[in-house]
Amino acid sequence: MYEHGVWRLHFVCRVEVDVADAPGDGVAGIDLGICNLAAVSYGDESVLYPGGALKEDEYYFAKKRAETDDSASREAKRLDRKRTSRRTHFLHTLSKDIVSECVERGVGTIVVGDLSGIREDENGESRNWGTHGNLDLHGWAFDRFTMLLDYKAETEGIEVVTKSERGTSKTCSVCGRSDDNQRVERGLYVCDCGFVGNADANGAENIRRKVLPNLATDGGDRDNGWLAQPAVRLFDRSGGRFAPREQVTGRES
């Protein structure tokens, strides 16, 4: 590749890596979305990973690229490379943090919601998420994240499987009731059984149960406070890592 008057030669090598034994037999579920790029359920705790930092980058670079006189100019290409690099770093950091958490919690299987049809509705038509939602979906590389998660998890002996997300966002993970009206607003899930919790955490728990078919709902008898008040980990730009909300300055909204 010839860049800025210098030829650069890039090598891609395939190497064998040692695969560790699974850290345990626990199962984690991941719900991928727009506001929270990932919501993770561990069965007794849930963690949200907002995508605010990634969205800010997408809007920033889209605006800067629009200001260039020529979309094929050197400046436009430089902006594209930088945008891709920052997105890749974000996704690498996110997948690494989730795998590290799974190792600590003895998780041997990660279940990820399959978003292959996220841009189409039930009739195969293009789904309209609104101006901002459509831009976000166009920029977010869900497939890229799943690929990074898969190989990082493999080195730790953790299996990653994908399952359909159909019904997981509108089904109560406590009683099993399904109703389009239970997700009353973004981020809030309310069920007639009395359960009130975070909608993304509820979806992640339903995805987790996709590989636990014998795990029956109990009508709300068990403690489900962790679904109502999930932990939040934000991307810390200064350190290039994810950290608990209280440890990150310049928090995402």
Automatic annotation (TrEMBL):
<feature type="domain" description="Probable transposase IS891/IS1136/IS1341">
    <location>
        <begin position="10"/>
        <end position="118"/>
    </location>
</feature>
<dbReference type="Pfam" id="PF07282">
    <property type="entry name" value="Cas12f1-like_TNB"/>
</dbReference>
<comment type="similarity">
    <text>In the C-terminal section; belongs to the transposase 35 family.</text>
</comment>
<dbReference type="InterPro" id="IPR001959">
    <property type="entry name" value="Transposase"/>
</dbReference>
<feature type="domain" description="Cas12f1-like TNB">
    <location>
        <begin position="142"/>
        <end position="207"/>
    </location>
</feature>
<dbReference type="GO" id="GO:0006310">
    <property type="term" value="P:DNA recombination"/>
</dbReference>
<keyword id="KW-0815">Transposition</keyword>
<keyword id="KW-0238">DNA-binding</keyword>
<dbReference type="Pfam" id="PF01385">
    <property type="entry name" value="OrfB_IS605"/>
</dbReference>
<protein>
    <submittedName>
        <fullName>Transposase, IS605 OrfB family protein</fullName>
    </submittedName>
</protein>
<dbReference type="GO" id="GO:0003677">
    <property type="term" value="F:DNA binding"/>
</dbReference>
<dbReference type="InterPro" id="IPR051399">
    <property type="entry name" value="RNA-guided_DNA_endo/Transpos"/>
</dbReference>
<keyword id="KW-0233">DNA recombination</keyword>
<dbReference type="GO" id="GO:0032196">
    <property type="term" value="P:transposition"/>
</dbReference>
<comment type="similarity">
    <text>In the N-terminal section; belongs to the transposase 2 family.</text>
</comment>
<dbReference type="InterPro" id="IPR010095">
    <property type="entry name" value="Cas12f1-like_TNB"/>
</dbReference>
